[in-house]
Automatic annotation (TrEMBL):
One of its GO terms (cellular component) is nuclear pore. It holds the Pfam family WD40. The lineage of its organism: Eukaryota, Viridiplantae, Streptophyta, Embryophyta, Tracheophyta. This is Plant poly(A)+ RNA export protein. Residues 1-32 are annotated as: Disordered. Keywords: Repeat, WD repeat.
């Protein structure tokens, strides 16, 4: 694996001329999530904070960002999720707890979930009115936020590294390249367990919008496209991305476009790209930023793509230079040509 800073010669944190979010976190950003109902953006970070900005659009390209509110955890925050009505934010991390923050009502955060080790990923499941939390304590827990104890605890074979939910599909990636698939209509039973199609550690997952499969990204600059139905296995494939010659970088984030169902990848090479899995084409490659891109997110209509540019801690504290590692959050306004799928090369007729 490469030492990012010594190989990326581009000193510009914003070569794609994206819109810079005002008053970003003071340490690396660990997750980004837009409200499902509005252009409120939440970021969690290694400075123990959860911050929210209001993103306002005036015309085609005039975008303003205004810090709205923030709350603190006791230790670095690793993950976030919104309630489906857009009123409430959940956040979890190294203090082994999830806080529920009634953001729109201005209420105080309360602890609604606990684990025995840091919480790596969380998901609100509106169809079940439950919060799912995945931890390095090798458990998934489901919580009714009105009750102090989990309604169900599902043991994992290893530490949870990533989780994605598109009801009734839930996919969990753990250490040792395990990928466990659950049908949330029967969450107490594993639907399927597979070994990752990628040879190295899982970093991120994204469920297909049609719930027929998932994307998986690894530390080795590769993405796997995996269908769940045995009859669809011929459609499975992997592809390389976030590589520069012999230098290989982690794929840190996978996001499906909410309208076109194409997807974005973001990597430790400082780039983000847009792809169409159905035609197996890259739609757009963006210029590399001066630091890794550890997380990203589309807003609810896909007109805004948020991404962070900051140190990703993959090289440890000894390679962290506060003088050059200023965290940024940027907003990119995708053109339709960047995110709308294209016909498969060589295909005839309409898709």
């Amino acid at each position: 694996m490469s030492n990012f800073l010594s190989n990326n010669t581009n000193p510009n944190p914003n070569p794609n001329k994206s819109i810079e979010v005002n008053q970003p976190p003071t340490d690396s950003v660990s997750s980004l999530n837009f409200s499902p109902k509005s252009n409120l953006l939440v970021a969690t970070s290694w400075d123990n904070q959860v911050r929210c900005w209001e993103v306002a659009r005036d015309g085609a390209n005039n975008v303003a960002t205004m810090p709205k509110a923030s709350i603190a955890h006791d230790h670095p925050v690793l993950c976030s999720a919104w309630k489906d009505d857009g009123t409430t934010v959940f956040s979890g991390g190294c203090d082994k707890q999830v806080k529920m923050w009634p953001l729109l009502s201005g209420g105080q955060p309360i602890t609604v979930a606990m684990h025995d080790a840091p919480i790596k990923d969380i998901a609100w499941i509106p169809e079940m009115n439950l919060l799912a939390t995945g931890s390095w304590d090798k458990n998934i827990k489901y919580w009714d936020t009105r009750q102090p104890n989990p309604v169900h605890t599902q043991q994992l074979p290893e530490r949870c590294y990533a989780m994605t939910v598109k009801h009734p599909l839930m996919v969990v990636g753990t250490a040792d390249r395990n990928i466990i698939v659950y049908n949330l209509q029967n969450p107490q039973v594993e639907f399927k367990r597979i070994v990752s199609p990628l040879k190295y550690q899982t970093r991120c997952l994204a469920a297909f919008p049609d719930q027929q499969g998932f994307l998986v990204g690894s530390i080795e600059g590769r993405v796997g496209v995996h269908h769940l139905d045995d009859s669809q296995q011929a459609k499975n494939f992997t592809f390389k991305c976030h590589r520069e010659g012999n230098e290989i970088y982690s794929v840190n984030s996978l996001n499906f476009h909410p309208v076109h169902h194409t997807f974005a990848t973001a990597g430790s090479d400082g780039a983000f790209n847009f792809w169409d899995k159905d035609s197996k084409q890259r739609l757009k490659a963006m210029l590399r930023c001066s630091q890794p891109v550890p997380c990203s997110a589309f807003n609810n209509d896909g007109s805004i793509f948020a991404y962070s540019v900051c140190y990703d801690w993959s090289k440890g504290a000894e390679n962290h230079n506060p003088a050059t590692a200023k965290p940024y959050i940027f907003l990119h306004l995708p053109q339709e040509s960047e995110v709308k799928g294209k016909p498969r090369i060589g295909a005839t007729g309409r898709r």
